[in-house]
Please model this.
Amino acid sequence: MPPMLLTPPETDSIADASQAAVDALTALSKSAQNSLKGDDDAGPRLGYCEEIERLSLWIDDHGIRSGTLDHKLREASHLRNRVLSLLAELSGTVKGAKLGGS
Model:
């Protein structure tokens, strides 16, 4: 099976990449809130909030903000690069959804 091609990481820090993903989700959530003003259906807004909260919990559980995960993966660069690539892809996908929905 050929390896999956992912977006190359734009940062060397998992903490920075994870913060970029949170920021992208937050921006998408705000965009959705603005487009749904006056709409009684809070479902989409709650969904974004839950995803932001879930990502934040993952970040906190793995010590990402403090650099713990970067430190733990310093000897396993392939895993570290994979985490960075996945976070970059998440950020890019969310930013694309915001641009596509605007």
Q: What stands out?
A: The chain has four helices and no strands. Residues 1-8 have pLDDT under 50 and may be disordered. Residues 14-101 form one domain.
